[in-house]
Write a structure and sequence with these properties.
- The complex is a heterodimer.
- Chain A is an alpha+beta fold.
- Helices cover 52% and strands 18% of the residues of chain A.
- Chain A is built from twelve helices and ten strands.
- The longest helix of chain A is centred in the C-terminal third of the chain and has 40 residues.
- Chain B is globular.
- The chains are: A alpha+beta, B alpha/beta.
- Chains A and B meet through helix 1, helix 8 and helix 12 of A and helix 1, helix 2 and helix 3 of B.
């Protein structure tokens, strides 16, 4: 039985297509700019600010100066909820290899920083380092024309009684850290390999022949690489270190600002969207009410022809839903070229866009539109209920 | 919607003291109206006497005034303010040809004719519909919208719409007023003929029925009563036999 009011509602829209088109245009006028702003919010905040926030470097806490951190210190940090990753470092500034060479390409890079890594390193997205297996930064990979699967030759030098002595070690590259994660040349290697380097330089009993043999862990480490689990955890974690007498500072001082920037922009957008939707709701309400007024005699005729109230009342609801859903789809189609143009003008990092609209956004807009449509039809429904059959008898 | 077939064995219209205050101090009242299936009565009175209002009262489409001993039955169904319209005004019980010939502008001629039957959830009798459309001379215009029809054609669509459900009672409000005089007699004859085929009782409100098909059809009495500062325009068939058209 609900087929008849639905059919009548849609037939009326088709018949009065110019009014329907005006209505859809009005909807697109409100919704179009709103969706463009949403796309910009997604692009700028979601992607660009998001990238800054997601960048693990911003979660790094740097130790100030050298300390003496024992195994218990690292064990305690490792189990904290606010710690994302921690690995011991042998010095407060990075140790360097004297040189790293790629035999295959006959290329050599001097004074390459050695950075301790381990399973769970947020800078590494793949298999963790192990003794003899390293990740290298993109910059080093470029310099040496090397990549995953290649073997590099690490050269560590020392002077003994004025004589220069070099130790070598083959390192298998198992991955390359992208430039946006680590822009400079570096080798990410396991703690045992780093300890071996330090031993060769400090301990004369280590020789170029035996220096890579496993040694006992030192009683303490001078420093660490420490990452909070999230930006919000940085403050807490820094305070904890301070309580332990360890001076530290966050690598990105303004990371917390970014976080609140994103939050505030979200609030701002939600407020703008809510205001715009309310305005649209009011306009829609008035428009639907006006449609009932124009069709009063027909609604009276329906009543005369014994159409039940609930069926008559369904007509403005169906019309409202149809107009809004078509309006949303039309708006999306209309703004797509604008989004493409915006992204073309503000050319950004490949794979990232200034303006970005997700399927979920469109779906949410449709659902929100449907809710708006149904609630905006309430006034019209009340008006339809008040149209009685006698009007068709008396209208001139 | 009432699913039972309308009762045509007794009076299809039985009305006593049914009235409405049309304007302050001015009442339109049907004192008595009894019609059997196939009978016809004409409400013939001067303009402004309330003929259309009387039809509206019969149709149960107007809010009635409180009078003593009011009775209002259509096809055996007592009509009160609480009775669902579908119980007494469905297409098999009542057909109403409005003076205004209001049609749904976005439906075709054929869809307009079918609308009451569709709304009632009943099956369209395709053969009867075809007969009505052809008889009314509308066979070539089935797909046309009301806006593409002449006033006279719209009036004929209204008649076909009212008759499609073979109503127990057919209410006609100036059904030929918009026709050119040459067509009046023909369309009136058609209405009489088709109403008889449908087995409908007919109530015609017209101020131009002195000639033509309804010239000799019995009239309801009409009188104006002024009482205690109130004015009553009263229609009644008391003591009058209606015409048996069939």
């Amino acid at each position: 039985m609900m087929r008849i009011p639905v059919t009548l509602a849609l037939r009326e829209l088709r018949h009065d297509w110019q009014a329907a088109l005006c209505f859809i245009a009005a909807l697109a006028g409100v919704l179009g700019p709103l969706l463009i702003v949403l796309a910009l919010k997604n692009g700028v905040i979601g992607t660009m600010v998001g990238r800054l926030i997601e960048d693990p470097s911003n979660r790094e806490i740097l130790a100030i100066g050298a300390g003496a951190h024992d195994a218990a210190f690292f064990a305690a940090l490792g189990v904290r909820q606010d710690v994302g990753f921690v690995v011991p470092a042998t010095r407060s500034i990075n140790t360097s290899a004297n040189a790293v060479r790629n035999e295959a390409s006959r290329k050599l890079e001097r004074a390459v920083p050695l950075i301790p890594s381990a399973a769970g390193d947020p800078l590494i997205s793949g298999a963790p380092v192990a003794p003899g297996q390293v990740w290298i930064s993109d910059a080093l990979a470029q310099d040496l024309s090397a990549g995953a699967g290649d073997t590099l030759d690490m050269i560590i030098g020392r002077e003994v009684d004025g004589q220069r002595e070099n130790a070598r070690r083959d390192l298998q590259v198992i991955g390359v850290v992208p430039a946006e994660i680590w822009p400079r040349a570096a080798v990410f290697l396991s703690v045992p390999d780093l300890l071996a380097v330090e031993r060769f330089r400090d301990d004369l009993s280590a020789t170029p022949a035996n220096w890579t043999e496993p040694v006992a862990e030192p009683e303490s480490y001078a420093s660490f690489r420490l990452y909070a689990r999230s930006l919000d955890d940085i403050g807490n974690l820094a305070a904890h270190l301070s309580d332990l007498g360890v001076q530290s500072r966050p690598r990105a001082e303004n990371a917390a600002l970014l976080l609140s920037f994103r939050r505030n922009l979200n609030i701002l957008f939600t407020a703008i969207a809510a205001l715009a939707m309310f305005g649209f709701w009011a306009a829609m309400s008035a428009n639907l009410r006006g449609m009932v007024e124009r069709q009063r005699v027909i609604f009276s005729l329906y009543s005369m022809l014994t159409m039940p109230d609930r069926q008559r009342c369904l007509i403005p609801v169906v019309q409202s839903l149809a107009l809004v859903l078509v309006g949303v789809m039309a708006t999306v189609i209309l703004i797509l070229p604008f989004l493409v143009a915006i992204n073309a003008v503000f050319d950004s990092v490949p794979g990232e866009s200034v303006a970005r609209l997700y399927a979920g956004d469109i779906l949410a807009t449709l659902v929100l539109g449907a809710v708006t449509a149904v609630t905006a039809a309430v006034w019209a429904v009340v008006a339809v209920r008040n149209v009685d059959p006698q009007e068709v008898l008396t209208h001139a | 919607m009432s699913s039972a077939a309308p009762d045509r064995s007794h009076n299809v219209v039985a009305i006593r003291n049914l009235g409405i205050e049309r304007a302050p101090g001015f009442f339109v009242v049907i004192e008595e109206l009894d019609l059997h299936a196939g009978e016809t009565i004409v409400l013939d009175a001067v303009s402004g006497a309330g003929k259309s209002t009387a039809l509206g009262l019969i149709a149960g489409a107007l809010p009635v005034a409180a009078f003593p001993d009011t009775r209002h039955e259509i096809a055996g169904v007592a009509v009160t303010g609480d009775t669902p319209r579908a119980d007494y005004a469905g297409p098999d019980r009542m057909g109403f040809v409005l003076q205004t010939n209001t049609l749904v502008p976005y439906l075709s001629l054929q869809e307009n004719i079918e609308l009451p039957v569709r709304v009632a959830g009943q099956q369209v009798d395709a053969e009867w519909q075809d007969h009505l459309i052809r008889a009314m001379g509308l066979g070539d215009f089935r797909a046309r919208k009301p806006g593409q029809l002449s006033v006279g054609q719209r009036q004929r669509v209204s008649v076909a719409r009212a008759l499609l459900g073979r109503p127990a009672v057919l209410l006609l409000d100036e059904p030929v007023s918009a026709l050119d005089p040459a067509n009046v007699a023909e369309v009136e004859a058609l209405i009489v003929h088709l109403a008889a085929e449908a087995g409908s009782a007919v109530v015609l409100a017209s101020h131009q029925a002195q000639s033509g098909e309804f010239a000799h059809t019995p009239r309801a009495d009409h009188r104006i009563l002024n009482h205690q500062g109130q004015s009553y325009s009263i229609f009644s068939t008391k003591g009058r036999a209606a015409a048996r058209v069939a």
